[in-house]
Amino acid sequence: MTRYVALLRGINVGGNKKVPMAQLRNLMEGLGYTDVATLLQSGNAVFTTKEKNPAKVAKQLETAIAKEFGFDVAVIIRTRDELAAVIQANPLSGAEDAPSKFLVTFLSDVPEKKRLQEIDPKAYLPEEFRVVGREIYARFPNGIGNSKLATVLGGPRLGVTPTARNWSTVTKLLELADR
Fold it and tell me: Residue 54 in 3-state DSSP?
């Protein structure tokens, strides 16, 4: 059995794509997932399943959500161990000191180097980011709300599907996965 973390992109934001977490838990249990738990109202879930292929799990969830709620939602999947490795691999300081000003953007795949090279880090200072595999770590000393970098990292520019979580949510998801 594998313990997974599902990160749903763009639900319950600004009144669009409403997915009640109780309904999501029921849907996931209906797919045969066990030990299902959700965190917050923004599409974070942990669960256990026999399926070993994360891509199959993501596709199964995306299909079930579209059928149940009537709209498409991208689902990014990480195993519990991958999430722990994401936390360990953090290359930037300050996440623990200001978790609401620190994001991890989880990507559906590793972006092409060319796309990353098109983003000039100096243009966004004092904000900073580092790419490690399928994650982008970013620090926003002045907050995320008006950040142009957050918009770039969370949009289509990278050619992969992104979904971001603040550091507090990332660490709470690991705690939830470990219960």
Answer: helix
Where is the domain boundary, 65, 82, 99?
A: 82
CB 5 within 8 A of CB 78: yes
**93 with 30, same domain?**
no
Mean pLDDT within 81-99: 95
The per-residue pLDDT of the chain, averaged, comes to: 93
Phi-psi region of 94 (alpha: psi -120 to 50; beta: other; left: phi over 0): left
118 pLDDT higher than 80: yes
Tell me: pLDDT of 173 over 90: yes
Which tokens go with 96? 């623990």
Compute how many other C-beta atoms are within 10 angstroms of the C-beta atom of residue 36. 19
Going by C-alpha positions, the residue among 38, 46, 133, 155 that lies closest to residue 86 is 133
Name the nearest CA neighbour of 62 among 91, 98, 19: 19
What is the span of the domain harbouring residue 93? 86-166
Q: Looking at residue 92, what is its pLDDT?
A: 94
